[in-house]
Amino acid sequence: MRVLRVFVGLLLVGLIGAGSLLTWLAAFPSIDPIQPLARSTFSPELIKKGEVLAAFGNCAGCHTKVGGEAYSGGLSLPTPFGVIYSTNITPDPETGIGRWSEAAFRRAMREGIDREGNFLYPAFPYDHFTKITDEDNKAIYAYLATRKPVRVDRTRNELSFPFNIRMLMAGWNLLFFKPAVFQPDPAKDEQWNRGAYLVQGLGHCGSCHSPRNLLGAEKSDQDLGGGAAEGWHAPALNVASPAPVPWTTDALVNYLLDGWDEHHGIAAGPMTGVVNKLADLAEEDIKAMAVYLRSLQGRPTDESQVKGKVASARQRDLSLTKSANAATPTATKLERGEAVFARACVNCHRAGTVSATQPVPLGVTTSVSAPDPRNVIRIIVEGIRPPKGVPERSMPAFSSLSDDDIADLVTFMRARFSEQPAWNDVSLQIREVRRSAH
């Protein structure tokens, strides 16, 4: 009993000590409010630069709810810990950031602390935005400060205990966050460093394309090693990339510019919006990002390797037929899946079809070779709304297919068009996609 009391006492002392430390760490001063700034405060060139950067950083994408006014917040952001609602970043003086100085804005971007000294949650990716230069922060600030002010009451977050205690972010930051402006790698050239700055910083690609630990922090030792976004699998962009055909720099440029490449297919899901936001970014910046991302995937791609992979995928498509036998009660899962494919898919997904919008062979698409079936299932259920660069490359939804038909179809596609092992829990993934489909 005495030992138990000693243990409990030591535990309480530890908790009090930890709480005191967190309280001390959490003490950030507020920054004095300012009067909202007139548009004439900033040059047109600076505002325009900020507009391009804000689009690239997808500020409106997170800070605008469906049906809401641009940048006025209120978008629900589901997390494993509850729902966070984005804030109003219009220059409204009461409910937005109209009273934030440039210094306050820079602190939020670089340290994750708001004007009043409160911790921000990392659903706002300050762990990436910390890398942004003062010059780029100034431009984004100028652009946001000159938007239409929108007065809107803030929606309270719906986080479970203890994650609703902002002070705990002090400990999270201590463990997982280090404020640091991007520093160029002297061993790399200017183009590579520009790409690294854009991908690691304002582009915050790792927010979706990196795996996270139990506390929601990106796993630093698996940077861009594959993650999740809005119920979609975000494939690895490093050496672990599941793409059947190796990415080249030109292929990455095509994909980032238009959302489509002939050896990889089309952007879908959240990536569609990302590609659309890249439209105003300078082509040299797109090329820099492609150069950097390509460098993460190992040695340069051999052109003959690309041609061989594509030829193999096309050969598999050539044998597809519209006359597959209808599934019988004793048919195997693969036979049933082939019958569904013949009924619903083969008209478009068959090599030899002459069409300006002919889809790429399924065997070269990353979704069919990905580590889980989420993306294939979502594309079947939701269809594809194409990026602006390739508006003709849409795909209708096949949500009317039964869950069993989709399971058989997905199983067949994996076996027929991929060299990877069969997926597990396909039926469970279908149910989850059905629940969240929109």
TrEMBL record:
Q: What is its main location?
A: membrane
Q: Which cofactor does it need?
A: heme c
Write down the InterPro entries for this protein, in alphabetical order. Cyt_c-like_dom, Cyt_c-like_dom_sf, Cytochrome_c-type_DH, Membr-bd_ADH_cyt_c
Entry-linked PROSITE patterns? CYTC
The note on the cofactor says:
Binds 3 heme c groups covalently per subunit.
The residues that the entry says bind heme c 3 are C345, C348, H349
User: Domain Cytochrome c, which positions?
Assistant: 45-148, 190-297, 332-417
**Gene Ontology cellular component annotations, sorted alphabetically:** plasma membrane
Question: Which residues does the annotation say bind heme c 1?
Answer: C59, C62, H63
Molecular-function annotations in GO = electron transfer activity; heme binding; iron ion binding; oxidoreductase activity, acting on CH-OH group of donors
Q: Which residues bind heme c 2?
A: C205, C208, H209
Record bears the keyword Ligase: no
* Compartment(s) where it occurs, according to its Swiss-Prot or TrEMBL record: Cell membrane
Looking up PANTHER family in the UniProt record yields: ALCOHOL DEHYDROGENASE CYTOCHROME C SUBUNIT (PTHR35008:SF8), BLL4482 PROTEIN-RELATED (PTHR35008)
Protein known as: Cytochrome c
